Amino acid sequence: MIPYSVLDLAPILEGATVKQSFANSLELAQHAERLGYTRYWLAEHHNMPGIASSATSVVIGHVAAGTSSIRVGSGGIMLPNHAPLIVAEQFGTLATLHGDRIDLGIGRAPGTDGATAHALRRGMQGADRFPQDVLELLSYLEEPQPGQHVKAIPGAGTRVPVWILGSSLYGAQLAAQLGLPYAFASHFAPDALEEASDVYRRGFQPSPWLDAPYFMMAVNVFAAETDEDGRILKSSMQQSMANLRTGRPGPLPRPVADIEALLGLPVATMVDQIMRVSVHGASQTVRDGLAALIGEHRPDEIIINGAIHDHAARLRSFEIAADAMQSMATPAAAE
After folding, report:
1. What is the DSSP string of 183-218?
2. Full-prediction pTM beyond 0.85?
3. What is the pLDDT of residues 150-177, one digit of tens each?
């Protein structure tokens, strides 16, 4: 069995409030901690009516304060939106408050559109400085050097683990060059998954932060008591993805029984391609699907995303997924 973790965008549910989203995230994190999940990551997005985790470091603090052992972090912070010093101070503060269980995953995309990026005061050109910004951020988390004038306080010396996140070969190449762990966004951008993992592993250079490559892939999981129930749970994220891709983002919709009838075949097919690194269904179906993905791509860890409208069903889905992962470590599963 490899480690398994949670990716959460703190979805704002159709018919519910943002405050309820934060309560749901905390309850899911506490549930995941009991179920043996390794880490709980929250993602930065802006101007998205279905995502509540825009102030990502604040929500990480909320979740970390309500848990005790699970690692909590970002999946990720979109570095073009921020000065590296500010990020180092925020995550240095989190690490000082909560100890060695804070992760800092960083991405190159702004996590929004051009107009919103401009409102964030950094602009789209920030992506062009991404490698330099990563190095600057890393330097602030190390012990200060003699004569170093600018320091992250708190932050200096905390050595918060930094991950590179990506959905293309760019992040894989940079993570390999810098010797950092790498997480691939295969839950919504699966096309380059195999090539990115290969590029990362072949090009990895050991570093002060990591001796050997460490690759994590993201998987959508919609687990329920029956295969049909899992299929219906998946329809909320299918609708959300279709709405986003057609310029109509909104709260996470309620599930439907016939997604093709709702979206139309061309859009449903497009969404299925985008979300093809997914498993849905009952316990054995989910176990078999996860085992097949792990066997094919050989990740060191998986991180599970599951945008499910009904909160109780979401808790149950992550419970079934944890059981499936744990079953792979039993002698019967290895036969």
Report:
1. EE-TTT-GGGHHHHHHHHHHH----SS-SS--EEEE
2. yes
3. 999 999 999 999 999 999 999 999 999 9
